[in-house]
Write a structure and sequence with these properties.
The complex is a heterodimer of chains A (221) and B (420). Chain A has 221 residues and is an all-alpha fold. In chain A, 74% of the residues lie in helices and 0% in strands. The N and C termini of chain A lie far apart (58 Å). With 420 residues, chain B is an alpha/beta fold. The model of chain B has no long low-confidence stretch (mean pLDDT 96). The chains are: A mainly alpha (221), B alpha/beta (420).
């Protein structure tokens, strides 16, 4: 047993994780409070449609692109789907991850096989590379990209990459790799409230508002 | 009060609410709004990416409404917004956005970008960075009653013509009737036939109606300029006149932003609900059709297509109504690609049409509409907004296209069944 690697792993799983979790949870609460504290004036125009129902519907329906648009930004649309779905599968359906949730919250759900998890991970990583590529080359993406965008792409990719290497014992000391994997997740958690990663929570709020504003008028969203 | 940088910044701050904060928090810089934008698609210039047009507002939000931004600002890590920024953003916010609302419908995180442009214009105009034409029109509208100036004589002349043409009496300021008709300046000045069309339809349907001398102008330049004070005064005029006459309904005419102003923004601008209902003319015609009070005979045999005004369909929710009416009177009604909710803007909305500086961009933006029209090759383009009508007439002329443009109310009136 490599003591240095083991110590790092223990630190990553213990105190480092607690700190990361505190920043992650506290930061997200702060950012959500920052939104709601601003409030919203009551709309006095008599509603034609049902704003609440359409707001809730739009949280889900906006996951599907409008007809004919995918061809204009295929990397962003398709790469975006593959990354999100791949990351979701790797994060939530890998048996050791579920075991962590069971330990922490006492909940569990069925896992999926290694082949699916590993394929999802590899595809998500490829999609990330494509997304980074489009930020360098596509004029629209290039014009919008800031440091934050690259940071988030890299931070989202590292847990996938280190996890894949650690699980498959591809190279390096497996204990060290596992420590790196956990530390990369913690880096992602710490960056979360400070970056556009926040959209993973706030998308439901913004989609709701979009649907509610349109729905009130009886217009599509 | 004169426009100053401080006032602009304050006006912008006042516009930042929970929806705006959620939109900026959610934006992932994906750029998918670009492909929905008529100005980006026509020019492929990345400066026209819709969310980029809001950078200034985003900076104010980030620096003043988020803790991390506030800290970064205090440490001098982010640049404060300056008057030059307002000046630099003016053309992006006024010339290259018709507030058509397509970006709002494609944003994957649900950002209502169009609503934010509307809000950002409040800050821009308060800072004195708005197109001169809109500022001048607001002055004329406030002082003389319409963005085109004093239109009383023109309106009275047009009403006389309509009475002569139709043989139907049209009375001003008649209390106790159910409906009050208001018109857009564009209709009075350029498309007055709509008056006779309404007179004929309403007579057949047995509606009682009047026009108020105190408030006959439906447009609201305050909405386009982004000035709540101007917008409120103009809405209040219509509300006062309608409530004085005691009408049950005010009919919002074939005008996009007029519907947006009176129906959706109005009660919020004056701070209370109305004592009457606002109904769009096309909503009313469709209601009369459903009730059997609007009967037509015969059909138009030309190839007709329909142009959806953004503020009435995409941002107003009136989509099925015009199509049911079209099918009632058109034998050969052909829809273009993207018809309905995602139809392309005429390029003249949101004040862009009256902004001379934006003429080149407006003509470039017609590209998308042109592609739609060339595929269908209609003989007539029917619409339900006098300003779309005006814009289309002009660009069709510019591009040597020989399609005729027509208002839907007039089209329906042509096929009224005289036997019933």
């Amino acid at each position: 047993m490599n003591n240095q690697a083991f110590d790092l792993l223990m630190w990553a799983r213990g105190p480092a994780f607690d700190i990361a979790l505190m920043i992650f949870a506290g930061g997200i609460v702060l950012r959500i409070v920052e939104i709601f504290v601003l409030g919203r004036k009551k709309d006095l125009a008599p509603a034609k449609g049902n704003p609440v129902a359409q707001g809730l519907k739009t949280i889900f329906s906006r996951s599907v692109p409008r007809e004919g648009l995918v061809k204009f930004a295929p990397i962003t649309y398709i790469g975006g789907y593959i990354f999100h779905i791949g990351f979701f599968i790797a994060f939530f359906f890998f048996a050791p991850h579920i075991a962590l949730f069971t330990d922490a919250f006492g909940v569990s759900w069925p896992s999926t096989g290694r082949v699916i998890v590993e394929s999802a991970t590899a595809l998500a990583l490829l999609a990330l590379i494509a997304l980074i590529y489009s930020r360098f080359t596509d004029p629209v993406r290039k014009a919008l990209t800031t440091f934050d965008d690259y940071l988030v792409l890299v931070l989202s990719g590292l847990p996938l990459l280190t996890g894949y290497i650690a699980v498959n014992k591809l190279f390096g000391d497996p204990t060290m790799m596992m420590a790196f994997h956990i530390l990369s997740v913690e880096a992602l958690m710490i960056a979360f409230p400070f970056t556009k990663l926040m959209h993973a929570f706030s998308f439901a709020i913004s989609r709701y508002y979009n649907g509610a504003i349109q729905g009130r008028k009886g217009a599509e969203s | 009060m004169s426009a100053t940088f401080e006032r602009g910044l304050n006006a912008l701050r006042e516009q930042i609410d929970a929806p705006v904060a959620s939109f900026f928090t959610s934006c992932v810089n994906c750029g998918l709004c670009a492909e929905a934008c008529i100005f980006y698609r026509a020019t492929e210039d990345p400066k026209y990416i819709p969310i980029k047009k809001l950078d200034l507002m985003r900076r104010v939000w980030s620096r003043e409404f988020t803790l991390f931004g506030w800290i970064a600002g205090a440490l001098g890590l982010v640049k404060p917004v300056t008057d030059k920024d307002f000046s630099d953003w003016e053309t992006l916010v006024y010339d290259s956005c018709t507030m058509c609302g397509r970006c709002t419908l494609v944003c994957p995180v649900g950002n209502d970008i169009t609503m934010m442009i509307r809000k950002m214009r409040e800050g821009m105009s308060a800072a004195g960075h708005a197109p001169v034409e809109l500022i001048a029109a607001a002055g004329r509208h406030a002082d003389l009653g319409s963005p085109m100036g004093e239109l009383h004589p023109a309106l009275h002349a047009q009403v006389k013509h309509a009475i002569k043409d139709t043989g139907i009496e049209i009375e001003f300021d008649k209390p106790g009737v159910d409906y009050m008709v208001i018109l857009s300046a564009q209709e009075i000045a350029e498309f007055p036939d709509v008056l006779g069309a309404m007179a004929k339809i309403f007579k057949k349907a047995g509606l009682t109606w009047t026009i108020s001398n105190e408030a006959f102008e439906a447009t609201n330049v305050g909405i386009q300029l982004g000035n709540r004070d101007v917008a409120r005064v103009l809405v209040q005029r219509v509300v006062d006149a309608a409530e004085k006459l005691g009408v049950k309904y005010v009919i919002s005419p074939e005008c996009g932003h007029a519907y947006q102003a009176l129906r959706w923004e109005g009660p919020n601008l004056i701070g209370r609900s109305y004592k009457f209902e606002v109904i769009h003319i096309i909503e009313l015609l469709d209601k009369l059709r459903a009730e059997g009070k609007l009967k037509t005979k015969g059909k138009n045999t030309q190839k007709l297509t329909f142009h959806d005004p953004c503020q009435i369909n995409r941002r107003g929710g009136i989509n099925g109504e015009p199509r049911r009416l079209m099918n009632m009177v058109a034998e050969n009604f052909v829809e273009t690609d993207d018809a309905g909710t995602m139809n392309w803007c005429c390029g003249g909305g949101g004040g862009v049409g009256s902004n001379e500086r934006a003429e080149g961009l407006r003509h470039a933006a017609f590209k998308l509409k042109k592609i739609q029209l060339e595929k269908v090759e209609p003989e007539v383009i029917v619409t339900m907004c006098a300003y779309c009508h005006h814009t289309l007439d002009n660009v069709l002329e510019e591009f040597n296209m020989d399609q005729e443009v027509m208002g839907l109310t007039e089209l329906v009136a042509e096929y009224l069944d005289d036997d019933v």
